[in-house]
Structure formats: C-alpha cells, structure tokens
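call fold(seq) -> tokens
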Amino acid sequence: MKHSQSIELQFGHLSPGDDVPAELNAIIRLPGQSTAVSYECDPRYNLLRVSCITGAGTRFWQNYGFVPGTLAQDGDPLDIVVLAPFPLERLSVVACRPVGMLPVTHHATTEEKIVAMVSDRVCAASAPVQRLEDLGDYALTQMKAFFESYCGFGQAEAVRCGEWEDLHAAERVILGAVKSFKDSASCMRR
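ret:
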C-alpha cells in the first residue's frame, strides 16, 4: 500500500464532509503564519514527521492541510488551503467551503490546491468571500508566490502554478477525489 494511502486510512473514520462539495472537512497540517518547517503524518508512529525545512523567512501563508476521504491525482489526499482570520492548530479538523482552486505542477505532477474559507458557522467574517475574486488580487498573488517559492525551494526543477480556477472546477475535482477514494477503498477490501 502506498505511504500516502496509509496516512489517509489513519483518518478513514472522518468523512470529507456532510455536504460535499459545498462544505468540506479539512485536517490542518500546517497552521497559517507558521515557521518554514513542513510536517506530514507518519502512520507508523502516529506522529508528525518533519518532511521539509525551507529557506529563512519563509512562512506558510495560510492554514494548509488535506481533505479526509479523498484521493487526488497525485495519489495523496486532496490538498486544501483554509483561509481564516487566525492560525488553526495542527491536526485540527475544521469545516470549510471551497471558493476555487489553483493547479500547481511540481516534478511533472499536477496537484490541485483547493482554496476554501472557514465555514460561516465557524467564523461569520468569512461570509463575504464567496468567490476567488472576493479575496482580491493581492491575496491571490501572495498565495501563488507562496506555492512557487515554498514548493520549489532549493530544488532544480521549478514549480509552475497554473491559472486560478473557479468554484465549479474545484467542486468537480473534489467530487472526483471522493470517488477515487471510495473506489480505492473498495479495491483494498477485496
């Protein structure tokens, strides 16, 4: 079994959300404004493992995690950036709603980065942001620059960000990742 699928199975009791694709559960791996240390779940020890230390001054721009019960094209759970007014704790689960996505290509693999707002039930201040455009050019530019610099730090191969995609495109990717996870899980039970 692939390492990332083991990680996902550790969180197998969590659903991707009660109202997918309109609202999702996200498990936070990296809090917003945290240091330049990236962590991943290690199922062998049931702990966080340091996976990457980036350059001085690099900070995770926003809360970053994954959607349980999903399997993206890269074989990992679907990545998600959760915008909130405050950093969220590592390994916390938060309800959020997607507003769009950004395709990021690294090592010849494209990963869809879902961009979501913390649910309005969790934070009423999120309500005005319904589409990517509501975030403003500055926020979108910062997010893209983060992925280009963080993901490619110290590596010869550059990271390429695609163009922003709207909510409908994000919802298609989310539904596809949920289906892929269910298909994968049913294959493992056989």
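The longest helix spans residues 167-189.
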